[in-house]
Design a protein that fits this description.
The complex is a heterodimer of chains A (303) and B (387).
Chain A: H1 31-43, E1 48-53, H2 56-59, E2 73-76, H3 81-94, E3 100-106, H4 107-112, H5 115-123, E4 128-134, H6 169-174, E5 180-184, H7 189-201, E6 206-211, H8 215-218, H9 225-234, E7 240-243, E8 250-253, H10 259-267, H11 279-292
Parallel strand pairs in A: 1-2, 1-3, 3-4, 4-6, 5-6
Antiparallel strand pairs in A: 5-7, 7-8
Helix pairs in contact in A: 1-7, 3-5, 9-10
Chain B: E1 2-6, H1 8-22, E2 29-33, H2 40-47, E3 54-58, H3 62-74, E4 78-84, H4 85-100, E5 106-111, H5 125-128, E6 136-139, H6 143-158, E7 166-171, E8 180-184, H7 187-193, E9 209-210, H8 216-248, E10 256-259, E11 266-270, H9 274-287, E12 292-297, E13 299-301, H10 305-312, E14 317-322, H11 332-337, E15 346-351, H12 361-373, E16 381-382
Parallel strand pairs in B: 2-3, 2-4, 4-5, 5-7, 6-7, 11-12, 11-14, 14-15, 15-16
Antiparallel strand pairs in B: 1-8, 6-13, 10-12
Helix pairs in contact in B: 1-2, 1-6, 1-7, 3-4, 7-8, 9-12
Classes of the chains: A alpha/beta (303), B alpha/beta (387).
Chain lengths: 303, 387
């Protein structure tokens, strides 16, 4: 960690009920479940309304009239979460309510079909917290590639492994000059909680990107999701960064660019089984990513 | 009430503004807007208005325009947008969503043909594409009717027995850009006609999921409730006409508007501005001793089958004029009206005026001539009028 978080970790005010209630039908080891529990702690007694597009996140709710969500939720059409949230947020402000409107969308609804809607809401600086839980796959429909699917990953529509890498969604949002944008590690709860709170407290558009393990799609052990996130961070594959205002990002968790961690990350996931993963190629891509972040890796620092 | 020289686009924006301001004591007003010819002047005027408690959001697409309206409406605000043609086609998914959520949004639609090839002129194919979306649909004949229908539509849509969105349709350029002396009501009058919206299913802090998963039986039940709400519309519409007349001093037209049908033995059924042209032709034929009549279908959804059957009762020859075409079948109005035509009458469908093809009284007179000369009905006829 590059900065002390102690002062920012005020005790959590208990929410009267969790955002994700017991009895939901999420797969074991689903990163979304962990993320929702973290959100629940961060929200405390702030009134929220959630907009969840037609993705795994809305299957989570279960069938009418029950709801696995302990918060009011609009199930929007796939591409529309940021636009529906826009309307809700405007009415809250018009009526002097402190309700925070939160979009909770997967990578399909964020990187692909919802990107224009998201971009427009970010450009207008709508008063929304948009959280993308990125499991790098269309999970709800059974595991097809999205533009968040990484190089080499086998999906039902890339049976030989995806031939190109993933889209850099955080840079796209940063290019909109939104007040707050950050990536969140599910393996570092203090940092995640701080960012979720900051996102909730931001006036205007805030964007959070959560890399969210999907044991079903990643063909990985449900118990190893957090370890996978740690490996992705250590190797530099998933930068845990924070953009607030201009200038280079704050790096919350420093990678050591470990080649061993990188190799282990691929080994633990069956989805990379078919493709010949060229670790040198991946390492070059990591080097490029960090150079773009304004934090170039030291030469030869690929242990 | 003041008289202003307004286009139908500006009539619509004026009515939406008055309706929006009338909800200042409720949860406010707003919507998403996006330009498309020939609707743009409507949202331009709306964007110039000031609202004590309202925001107009300039979005990046029609799909998002309707999504923003849904957000406003779900939070309990009054909501409005406008679109046309391919914009409506792009919006389709969220038009259905707004209907299925039972949100009383009002949308002004300028009827324009769908492209390609690109053509900005009138036909009804765009809004008829949305006939199954769970919205009410009203087709207007002049600018005053556009203004009045938007106010009426809010009262109807927000009635707790209805709670359905409403589309107010008007013909591209024939109305959208044509100026007409229009009575504009005062804010006080509109406040008296439109009480603050109290949406029973608005999102609060209660932990419910709106529009989530539904079982097959749940869906059957929800669709049935939706259909029952549609079935209540005619009675509520009549009440809204009474209330409108009481406040504004003029009565909005019925769902079906007959013209000289009392003793007509030959009649043409149409929608929108075509019906005004039919009236001119009817008058000319009546001067020649022909017992001609016209029927305008003003409300297309819910479809006023019984009212149409009453208007056509006793008529021996009925022609249906469609400014639209369901390719591979015929006109949509023809298809839907067939059950309302007397069983022993000769029924002929005509498709005309597509993509803004001219419809003049003489064209209508020639169709009356064709209908009167027929021995039997044939396949729907596509009428082209050169130049």
């Amino acid at each position: 960690m590059t900065e002390s978080l102690v002062d920012e970790l005020a005790p959590c005010r208990a929410r009267s009920e969790p955002i994700l209630r017991p009895g939901n039908t999420n797969c074991g080891g689903c990163g979304m479940s962990i993320g929702l529990n973290m959100l629940s702690r961060a929200v405390g007694d702030t009134p929220i309304q959630m907009v969840i597009p037609a993705c795994c996140g809305i299957v989570t709710a279960g069938a009418f009239p029950s709801s696995a969500y302990g918060a009011p939720v609009v199930a929007s059409t796939f591409a529309s979460s940021a636009a529906v949230a826009t309307g809700l947020a405007h009415v809250a402000r018009l009526n002097g309510e402190r309700t925070r409107v939160v979009c909770w969308a997967g990578d399909g609804g964020t990187y692909d079909i919802g990107l224009a809607t998201l971009s427009a809401a970010a450009e207008r600086d709508e008063d929304i917290l948009y959280i993308c839980y990125d499991n790098e796959i269309y999970g709800n429909t059974g595991g097809q590639r999205s533009s968040a699917t990484p190089l080499g990953a086998v999906t039902t529509t890339t049976p030989a492994g995806k031939s190109i890498g993933k889209k850099d969604i955080l840079s796209i949002l940063v290019a909109h000059r939104v007040p707050y944008a950050a990536s969140v590690s599910l393996a570092h709860p203090e940092d995640a909680l701080r960012k979720l709170r900051r996102g909730l407290d931001t006036r205007g558009f805030a964007f959070l990107h959560i890399l969210s393990p999907c044991p079903t799609g990643w063909k990985s052990e449900p118990s190893e999701g957090i370890e996978l996130i740690r490996l992705a961070i250590r190797s530099g594959l998933f930068p845990v960064v924070e953009f607030a205002g201009s200038g280079p990002p704050a790096v919350a968790v420093e990678p050591d660019f470990s080649r061993e961690a990188l190799a282990r990350y691929f080994e633990l996931q069956g989805r990379f089984g078919k493709a010949e993963i060229d670790l040198d190629e991946v390492a070059a891509s990591i080097r490029d990513t960090w150079a773009r972040l304004g934090r170039p890796m030291p030469p030869g620092d690929e242990r | 009430m003041t008289v202003e020289l307004l286009s139908a686009n500006h009539s619509a924006a004026t009515a939406a503004t008055l309706a929006g301001r009338a909800n200042r004591t409720g949860r406010g007003f707003g919507g998403g807007v996006y330009p498309i010819t020939p609707q743009t002047e409507c949202i331009e005027l709306l964007c110039k208005q000031e609202f004590e408690k309202g925001h107009v959001v300039r979005v990046e697409s029609e799909h998002s325009a309707m999504a923003v309206c849904m957000g406003f409406s779900q939070a309990g605000a009054r909501s409005f947008t406008a679109s046309s043609s391919n914009g409506l086609a792009y919006m389709v998914e969220n038009v259905f969503a707004a209907g299925l959520y039972r949100l009383p949004i009002v949308m002004m639609a300028v009827n324009r043909t769908l492209g390609p090839p690109w053509n900005i002129w009138v036909d009804h194919g765009d809004t008829l594409l949305l006939r199954d979306s769970g919205w009410m649909q009203l087709y207007c004949e002049d600018n005053q009717e556009v203004l009045d229908s938007i106010l009426l539509a809010y009262r109807l849509a927000e009635d707790p027995r209805v709670l359905l969105p409403a589309m107010v349709c008007q013909d591209a350029f024939v109305l959208s850009h044509t100026l007409m002396q229009t009575d504009v009501p005062s804010q006080e009058q509109v406040d008296g006609f439109l009480p603050p919206l109290d949406l029973p299913h608005r999102l609060t802090d209660r932990p419910v999921t709106v529009g989530g998963l539904d079982s097959p039986h749940g869906t059957e039940a929800h669709r049935k409730q939706h259909a029952e709400a549609m079935a209540r519309v005619p009675a509520v519409y009549a009440e809204c006409q009474d209330a409108f007349e009481e406040v504004f001093g003029r009565r909005p037209a019925d769902r079906v508007v007959p013209y000289r049908m009392e003793d007509a033995d030959v009649a043409l059924v149409s929608m929108g501005t075509t019906a005004a042209t039919v009236r001119v032709a009817v008058d000319r034929l009546r001067e020649q001793g022909v017992r001609a009549g016209g029927v305008r279908v003003r409300m297309f959804r819910p479809f006023p089958e019984r009212a149409l059957a009453e208007a056509l009762a006793g008529c021996e020859r009925v022609g249906i004029l469609d400014r639209d075409i369901s390719l591979g079948h015929g006109g949509v109005l023809w298809s839907e009206s067939r059950g309302a035509v007397p069983r022993d009458a000769l029924l002929q469908g005509y498709v005309l005026g597509l993509g803004g093809g001219d419809i003049r009284p003489e064209h209508i007179e020639s169709l009356f001539g064709d209908l009167r000369a027929r021995d039997a009905a044939a396949e729907p006829e596509i009428v082209e009028v050169a130049g």
